Amino acid sequence: MLPYATAGEAEAALGRALTWAEAAWLRYSASVPDRYLHWPNIAITLVVYTLAPLPLALFDLAAPAAAAPYKLQPKVQHPPATFFRCYMDAVRVSLLIIGPYQLISYPAAKIMDIRTGLPLPSMGEIMAQLTVYFLVEDYLNYWLHRLLHTKWGYEKIHHVHHEFTAPMAYAAWYGHWAEMLILAVPSLAGPALVPCHVTTLWIWFAARLVESLNIHSGFKLPFNAEKYIPFYGGAEHHDYHHYIGGQSKSNFAPVFTYCDYIYGTDKGYKYHKATLAKLKELAGSDVQKGADNGFNGGKQD
Ligand SMILES: [Zn+2]
Ligand SMILES: [Zn+2]
């Protein structure tokens, strides 16, 4: 609970006028106990998980012929029942994990030194913290993902996530409950190392989820970010990891590709891309657009 009852008290304490966002935060949080300020995380992530993939899912279901040129594996068409089963299963498992986490979120946030008061963080502070969180998350997630591809890890846990050899966005959360628990650690490591405001934490979880939905989308859209951000993997990078499946020794990184580059786990993917490029060159305009976008040229890993 904030120590100010009115905007005047808050402005006197800060020595300046409140921004509109700070005034809104004051109105929202002034009478809410701190422990409940962490609870919107679950609602935000569920809303993002439900709504963000919807446009592409509906496009894929309603107009498969129009969607095919943009799909990474255009020959695979998931029926509506698969979308629904994936969504319901993922929500069930995530509630199983996130639900109990809500009960310990407040003491965990206290230990991590997550603040809830004023001032709100600036845009620069938020961007700097998100950059750190993405880099920390990427490194830890890469190694945990590699562990999940050991014989034991794959057979006991990770094979569930790999049921989708041609993923779609809702498959981002589809997996064994233990995998959700394990991969929550890298997401919390950044904020534990570099504490932030609780609103930054909301943005971080939403941004990380959007990124996960994107890499599982199964679509390679013309405006994809990998064209503009160095070492950004994008959907094509992770789609290949699912396409290869349990035997994959390629593309473990979730967001950026620097770990795959440093540790040499991008060799199969590079070979595959080079083969596709050569085929395209040889066949010229005869190469199907699907083969150009997708993974129909033979598995190499
Ligand atoms: Zn995997
Ligand atoms: Zn995946």
UniProtKB/TrEMBL annotation:
Alphabetical list of Pfam families matching this protein: FA_hydroxylase (PF04116)
Compartmental location: Endoplasmic reticulum membrane
GO BP annotations, alphabetical order: lipid biosynthetic process
Subunit structure of this chain's protein: Homodimer.
Protein name: aldehyde oxygenase (deformylating)
Membrane-topology annotation of the record: Multi-pass membrane protein
Catalytic activity, as annotated: a long-chain fatty aldehyde + 2 NADPH + O2 + H(+) = a long-chain alkane + formate + 2 NADP(+) + H2O
A GO term for molecular function: aldehyde oxygenase (deformylating) activity
Phylogenetic placement of the source organism: Eukaryota, Viridiplantae, Streptophyta, Embryophyta, Tracheophyta
EC number(s) per entry: 4.1.99.5
